[in-house]
């Protein structure tokens, strides 16, 4: 090769330290100057709007009726719009107050059947974390690893019961146990949650015993298969 030879700079050469620092500073400034998410992107409280819609409609109807009666009887000359605004403000304030009320778990007991299932087990754990006294009923509580695990991981407010909803004897025994272990001052169970896979709907006096015990028969057949 003829002529002067120029060596190309190596691609592995380290970049300038000053440029790296400047780039890092710009990245930090851009991260600090990030704008928060706008309020319009937040989820719309549809449950609150749904609760307020029907009361507002009734307020409009009540305003029309009352305004017509007052004007007809010459008691007071009040416009429909004035009554509607008054009723709407009062009703919406009451609805929002009721919507924001929180249930106090202290001193409340809940009985859950079918804690062998996932939904019953998860519900028992959640209510125990909220502070409720939980009576967890199992189809077979003796030597049941699910029942033992639930009792170990939850607080002392959770009680494991042997409760087959198709057995009158076990239902009576579970009710007596729940009455004896209610929280102080509790008049009775605050809620009963039926989480088993079978339920018979109707008046208890009209349902045959065979229908009530169908779940136990189905379980025995499934285990036999």
From TrEMBL:
Stored SUPFAM superfamilies: NAD(P)-binding Rossmann-fold domains (SSF51735)
GO biological process: steroid metabolic process
GO MF entry, a single one: oxidoreductase activity
Stretches that traverse the bilayer: 52-72, 78-98
Entry keyword set: Membrane, Transmembrane, Transmembrane helix
InterPro entries with a match to the protein in the record: NAD(P)-bd_dom_sf (IPR036291), SDR_fam (IPR002347)
Domain of life: Eukaryota
PANTHER family: GH26015P, SHORT-CHAIN DEHYDROGENASE/REDUCTASE FAMILY 9C
Protein name per Swiss-Prot or TrEMBL: Uncharacterized protein
The organism of origin for this protein: Zophobas morio
């Amino acid at each position: 090769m003829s002529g002067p030879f120029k060596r190309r700079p190596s691609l592995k050469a380290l970049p300038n330290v000053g440029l790296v620092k400047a780039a890092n500073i710009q990245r930090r400034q851009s991260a600090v100057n990030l704008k928060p998410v706008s309020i319009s992107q937040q989820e719309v409280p549809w449950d609150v709007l749904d609760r307020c819609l029907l009361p507002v409609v009734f307020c409009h109807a009540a305003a029309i009726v009352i305004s017509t009666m007052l004007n007809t009887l010459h008691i007071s000359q009040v416009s429909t719009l004035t009554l509607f605004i008054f009723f709407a403000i009062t009703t919406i304030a009451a609805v929002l107050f009721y919507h924001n009320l929180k249930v106090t778990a202290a001193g409340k007991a809940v009985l859950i059947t079918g804690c062998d299932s996932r939904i019953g087990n998860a519900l028992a754990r959640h209510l125990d974390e909220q502070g409720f006294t939980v009576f967890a009923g199992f189809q077979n509580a003796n030597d049941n690893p699910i029942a033992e695990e639930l009792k170990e991981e939850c607080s002392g407010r959770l009680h494991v019961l042997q409760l087959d909803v198709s057995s009158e004897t076990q239902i009576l025994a579970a009710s007596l146990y729940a009455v004896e272990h209610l929280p102080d001052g509790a008049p009775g169970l605050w809620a009963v949650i039926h989480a088993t896979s079978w339920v018979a709907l109707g008046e208890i006096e009209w349902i045959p015993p065979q229908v009530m015990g169908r779940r136990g028969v189905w379980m025995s057949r499934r285990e036999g298969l």
